[in-house]
Amino acid sequence: MLNPAARVLAVWGDPVAHSLSPRLHAAAYRTLGLDWSYGRRRVDAASFPAELAALGADVRGLSLTMPLKGVAFAASTTRNRHAELSGAVNTLLLTDDGVRGFNTDVAGIAADVVEHAVDQIDRARIIGSGATATSALLALRELGVRSIEIVARRPEALGRLAALGEQVGVTVTTAALEAGAFGEVPLTISTLPGGAVLDDAVCDALAAHGGMLYDVVYGHWPTALASAWERRGTVAVPGIGMLVQQALRQVRVFLTSSDEQPLPGEAAVLAAMRAAVTEV
Question: Which fold is adopted by the domain 117-234?
Fold first, then answer.
């Protein structure tokens, strides 16, 4: 059960000063007519358990960014399906019955990819092998993809992602980022950091056979990959829409205790959140 007096929320991470979550959540609660506060705090993985234990009864929940998604998973007493499959939690709801963990990144990626008219595809490519790649794999599975090529600098280290693919019914193949020869796909999702340094020839090879590029980066645009796609005149989409969609689902959690229960007047809430980050 939620404490009705709990009206304080925040995003934690390290670093966290760059986070757009306060802007997004403030727009949502203003539209909903809720007098809730949403701040930010720099918290690292080592200090997370003590910081969580010290929270007062006025705290309703938390958004988590890197490097806290693993420790937030461990701190959760219950988790939604996407959190269980990914091993990552980016949202905590504090209740009288325990700490409930959610992964809203998966649904956020899937919803925004569909917004860009990419659906009903059976194969795709993921670039990168970190926590976001796990969420991207699950999002692609939600969209009906059955075959995924994962490209990374060390493809021999992709056993975890291959095992997850097998668990959810997706065939995973791997390729080295420097290989230069890649299969043809209608969609590429890049989960690399915005400042990742990539060889132009590799970027061009990926762009030549990569369909639309969906790059989860939004603050460092264009990325090296996006520039390669633009050189070919093909579509490259930044991940700001994913950020909005996953935050919308966090608002659902904080208000309804479910990431799947739509908000009252959700279309207006989503429009306000998008407007809050239009200039980014």
Answer: Rossmann fold (3.40.50)
